[in-house]
């Protein structure tokens, strides 16, 4: 065996990549040695030979044993590590000289910690109950990403251990701009005509490549389907093994987003062209981390494109938007889309503000640290302003507002808002400051982000910001302090809680459909990045990195797309609606304290924040029952909304389809139940399909405040897989409430818990 191949075997076994499904590394433990205080090289050689002899007796030859063993423990521990088939390991374990045989477990240093937070692994070990194990890491599912392109050189798109490209793939690789495809990154395309026309630009080489100059597309694609990459970090912080949701999936990049023009990067013509080609190429899942203001379904390129994709069996996952915490801001609200909000996880990149008076405030950052053991003067942006600048602008550390004579050598305290977080640090640096403390306003509250600032900096929450401002503004001595180096901290509570920026319901297009559908990790996510964009995104910043932290529903969306890829591998016959239902009905609404999830202000969140809840991937693999939908069900929904029959016929491309005489929005077989404007008794109908074992399910209801709920029948018995049963839910107002009320329905057979949120307005 060559050194290269041996190294590949070691890497694959260490990080649990089942490239060779029947072979992985095992530890064969034989006890201890009795060499004495001194041991000769010949004695060590004899130990190795004994290991070869033992293993060779099972493999058939010494040569095979030599090739299989990559460690002989010959000093104090007696044993060896070898690449074996499961049957071989089982046979060796029965040998009288063997104490134990166990699979070699890779210990990770916590990079894409989001997957461990969602219980897909524990301390680098992937349990048999993990959806990764059951779904073969998304093997051969094809995930497409509609975004800013791809940095194809990233290790996240390595093809190591992958077999031939699935024969069903019809896509191609556009190699312009030195983009390269392989058995992992199997397709790249770009779409620029809509952008060029809108921006009034002529095309040139920078617009004629799928290469990612921004970083957003590389980050999202690697989050959904990136390969295992050991040793990933952002300048040593968050060091560990990076991986996407479907690490063995094939991925394809559809570049439809370009440098901003009038505040937009992605234009409808290009989006539709990208959808069209992705459907042609044969993707199984589309991850789309972009959107705009909600619009009529027939006037929304994403709604149209995604409908056609779903018709072809493609699961479409979209971001909910970053316009929170304002209500009614959620985008991508079509019921055939799986819409994802963003929440935190239990990891923080902590950097503390240490004041001279002993106070200490926790912040987050990815920037370098100040010298240890030295305190620096503190000043606010308003105190350091130039004469003709407004105090408000200087407090926000806007360009040209800080006086170098007042800022030099100090730590500047800046208020969040109006300009980018990293640009505030740049302005502080240009003014000669040694550091910056970024303070949240009341609107941002607890929403703090670990940014790679250009100078030592940290970001603190609103409550601590108030205390800091009080110290800086009122102390009778010169205010002094310092910033500590960033350190990854785990087990943070509460987690998850909703990110303040995450867009919220209600749905402004169809109030009878709850959006978002679920939430997933979207804060400080480490994933692959382009080398053509600086860490801070500032032209003056020369720093680049292979991995980078980003936050947004753009980051939570590909987490769910990766899970959808796993479900597609595990259940290839499931429809996109079944996949969505499995993810939604197995979600949770409690945090790691077993308390109700909170929003960014630490107030109890609700279904307008998180939809059905935070995803639990391993539960989604076996949901028990699903709320399934066909294309005709979506057409019935459009009929119920009053769309023109001719339009619907053209939309459906089905000459036989006719709108039903009676159709109701609330009867769409959606996994959530929303009834707006409840003024009298309303009955909704749902159908459940058995995708698990035979069983009897009983309904449990948590009534929304001021609403009575009755379910008939309250017990459903399923005799076979694929069987469909219907039930009706009748809702009646007890009194008129001032706002929406939230409840829930759970069907359970004692093993599965099929949960649906109930949202009602009696106003």
Automatic annotation (TrEMBL):
Residue span(s) of domain Inhibitor I9: 25-110
Domain Peptidase S8/S53: 138-595
Entry-linked InterPro entries: PA_dom_sf, PA_domain, Peptidase_S8/S53_dom, Peptidase_S8/S53_dom_sf, Peptidase_S8_Ser-AS, Peptidase_S8_subtilisin-rel, Peptidases_S8_3, S8pro/Inhibitor_I9
SUPFAM superfamilies: PA domain, Subtilisin-like
PA domain mapped to chain residues: 404-468
GO molecular function terms attached to this record: serine-type endopeptidase activity
Organism domain of life: Eukaryota
A Pfam family hit: Inhibitor_I9
UniProt keyword terms in alphabetical order: Glycoprotein, Hydrolase, Protease, Serine protease, Signal
Gene Ontology biological-process annotations: proteolysis
Family classification: Belongs to the peptidase S8 family.
PANTHER family cross-referenced by the UniProt entry: PROPROTEIN CONVERTASE SUBTILISIN/KEXIN
Record protein name field: Uncharacterized protein
Organism this protein belongs to: Eruca vesicaria subsp. sativa (Garden rocket)
